[in-house]
Write a structure and sequence with these properties.
The complex is a heterodimer.
Chain A (H helix, E strand, L loop, with lengths): L3 H20 L3 H26 L3 H31 L13
Chain B lengths: L25 H19 L2 H25 L5 E3 L4 E3 L1 H22 L23 H5 L8 H17 L3 H19 L6 H33 L4 H8 L6 H19 L7 H8 L2 H26 L4 H23 L5 H21 L3 H25 L2 E3 L2 E2 L9 H4 L1 H15 L5 H15 L3 H26 L9 E2 L5 H18 L2 H12 L5
Antiparallel strand pairs in B: 1-2, 3-4, 3-5
Helix pairs in contact in B: 1-2, 1-5, 2-3, 3-5, 3-11, 3-14, 3-19, 3-20, 5-6, 5-11, 6-7, 6-11, 7-8, 7-9, 7-10, 9-11, 10-11, 10-13, 11-13, 11-14, 12-13, 12-18, 13-14, 13-17, 13-18, 14-16, 14-17, 14-19, 14-20, 16-18, 16-19, 17-18, 17-19
Classes of the chains: A mainly alpha, B mainly alpha.
Chain lengths: 99, 524
């Protein structure tokens, strides 16, 4: 099967993720969309690794997973403090900083 | 496009452990070691002891790493089988970041600004408005994890400017960003704003690093490698995969432009600079800018140097937009920290002018400019944290009215720093701008320099407006209180102001150092 198809799929997933970041209101869902983008990148890294016949892309994908896990720890901590303060995780409510 | 045969581990030669040149990466190792020791201190020392131990430890660690950078000054090599590079620009920027880190630690360690502790919250988990949260606001306690977090962030910055490989660069980007997201949420006063800044910085930062990573994947797809030097070799050949290359460069640039705060990816900057604790804002404004520019320059000069005619117009456009957005929107600000944030955006634009020159002068000019801007901006934020009301800092501009009459020395220092940011002669801001603009003119970017000069003039207007407000209007009856007792913050502001003056009057030694560091260029 032509590996380019996987690249198309990865591009679609990345686009879905970035549209989700832009339109969704809940901070947790926004964050999940960012994770979707990272995993879309993993798919293209693995596909490129297959196309080029070397292992670098697969190794990078492992690093990305670790980074994503670390990001979850930080991100959920921040979203949790916001939720405890405002009783809401909606990113439309965090609107004190403007102008 | 055809697929290569399936790669199995059995068909590959056994992996060889790459040699690690520990002495050459000692600055990074020292700072990482400092961070781990800091965590151990958190675990085993009593709360009151930590407040004394951690800042001393942090300053000692950063100074030790700076000494290591100085000792390595003539080393030029690629390390760890090509993943890291140590060369003039790397060492220059690592040294700069470490000096800024020392100053930022002095600001964080300040505990004498008002009756409560310093600028950092007593416990990050306090919810504003809950019973007991007011008592915690005035508590002497402090979330001393700030110091290890800063050390991790500095380690990431040192790695970011030295990475010779897009994978290492991505990891370094995350190491420097993740602690910063947390640090932004740790302000003692105005908790809601601080938490909001952390959330905005985190969500937008994660979004932009996803773009950066997709750029890495695309460039890997084009070149089959993530080593900067090998990417440069691959760009020299005409292939069928050029689409991947151009997509990759664009996505990578989005990640970089976000980190340096260039328009149209600047929208996080004012919110985060305003909401974050002021010492952290100073650290971010100076340190992150050096780190992100260091990595940006390396990628664009080393990996994409062969494509400069393709990316130059983009850099022109972004530089012009950034300068205009920064200078014009700063005019409308009522909050002093927001105004300095828009000034940071304008300065990112001026730095991009140096990159648009695409020559060695542009490299050394940018490095010089980063040093001058960093010292001035840290000192400016230090002064901001000295002018206070009962509610924390007097950040609204109207509260700064007549400050020149009530406390002339502080207002004088601040006026001098603002003039430096505006780029008036005899300040470091002038010499920095001169170095960058001269390089851009010699690199055939004269129209860009004209735009930059117009924007400098617009920017000078809002700096001077603050000076006029401080010296030529009457102080309000319920004016802010200026902290008068000598403190670490005064020392930091003084150091920043003295460096600003020295680099304005005798810039030559540092200019020589920068051009010496840039002369040998980037190693590949």
């Amino acid at each position: 099967m032509n590996p380019a198809n996987y690249l198309v799929l990865s591009g679609l997933l990345f686009a879905i993720g970035s549209v989700g970041v832009l339109v969704r209101r809940n901070a947790i869902v926004v964050f999940m969309c960012v994770e979707l983008m990272l995993n879309a990148v993993n798919l293209s890294l693995v596909t490129f690794s297959r196309i080029h016949g070397n292992l670098e892309g697969q190794v990078i994908a492992f690093f990305v997973m670790v980074v994503a896990a670390a990001e979850v720890v930080i991100g959920l901590a921040i979203i949790l403090t916001i939720f405890r303060t405002r009783r809401s995780a909606s990113i439309d409510d965090v609107n004190l900083l403007k102008y | 496009m055809s697929a290569a045969p399936v790669v199995l581990a059995a068909t590959l030669p056994p992996p060889q452990t790459p040699p690690v040149e520990y002495s050459s990466i000692s600055p990074i190792l020292i700072v990482l070691g400092l961070a781990f020791v800091g965590i151990l201190v958190e675990a085993f020392a009593a709360s009151s002891a930590r407040r004394a131990i951690q800042p001393v430890l942090a300053v000692l660690g950063f100074v030790a790493a700076f000494v290591a950078v100085v000792l390595l000054h003539s080393r030029r090599a690629t390390l760890v089988s090509g993943a890291l590079a140590i060369d003039g620009p790397t060492l220059f920027m690592q040294g700069t970041i470490l000096l800024f880190a020392v100053l930022a630690v002095m600001l964080v360690a300040e505990r004498r600004l008002d009756s409560s502790g310093g600028a950092i919250v007593a416990a990050a988990a306090i919810t504003p408005g809950e019973p007991g949260s007011t008592a915690m606001q005035t508590s002497k306690a402090m979330q001393t994890e700030v110091y290890p977090l800063m050390a991790f962030s500095v380690a990431g910055m040192l790695l970011f400017v030295g990475s010779n490989d897009l994978l290492v660069m991505f990891i370094a980007l995350e190491i420097l960003s993740l602690p910063l997201y947390l640090l932004c949420g740790l302000a003692r006063r105005r908790r809601l704003l601080s938490q909001e800044a952390a959330l905005k910085y985190f969500l937008l930062g994660a979004f932009s690093s996803a773009f950066f990573l997709y750029g890495v994947a695309m460039i890997y797809g084009f070149a089959g490698t993530v080593r900067l030097g090998e990417i440069a070799d691959a760009t020299g050949t005409v292939g069928e995969n050029d689409l991947y290359l151009y997509l990759g460069v664009a996505l990578l640039a989005v990640g970089f432009f976000f980190k340096i705060g260039a328009a149209p990816f600047h929208s996080w900057t004012p919110d985060v600079y305003q909401g974050a604790p002021t010492p952290i804002t100073a650290f971010m404004a100076a340190g992150t800018k050096v780190a992100a520019f260091g990595a940006l320059l390396r990628v664009f000069y080393v990996a994409l140097g062969g494509l400069r005619w393709d990316w130059r117009p983009v850099i022109w456009g972004v530089a012009i937009l950034t300068m205009i957005v920064g200078a014009v929107l700063a005019l409308t600000q009522r909050d002093i920290k927001r105004m300095l944030a828009y000034s940071a955006i304008a300065h990112a634009g001026f730095l991009l002018v140096g990159l648009a020159g695409t020559n060695a002068d542009g490299l050394s000019g940018s490095m010089f400019y980063l040093v001058t801007y960093g010292f001035t901006t840290i000192a400016a934020f230090a002064v901001v944290s000295l002018v206070r009301t009962g509610d924390g800092e007097a950040s609204d501009l109207s509260q700064w009215q007549g400050l020149g009459r009530t406390s002339p020395m502080l207002a004088g220092i601040f006026a001098f720093l603002l003039l430096a940011l505006a780029g008036i002669p005899l300040t470091s801001g002038f010499t920095g701008k001169f170095a960058v603009f001269q390089a851009a003119i010699s690199g055939d970017a004269t129209p860009l320099v004209v735009v930059a000069l117009v924007c400098s003039a617009v920017a000078a207007f809002f700096y001077v407006r603050v000076i006029v407000l401080m010296f030529f209007s009457d102080p309000p009856a319920d004016g802010p209180v200026v902290v008068t007792q000598p403190s670490l913050t005064y020392a930091t502001a003084g150091v920043g102001a003295i460096v600003t003056l020295l680099l304005g009057v005798v810039p030559q030694p540092l200019l020589d150092l920068a051009s010496h560091a840039a002369a040998s260029g980037f190693v590949r």
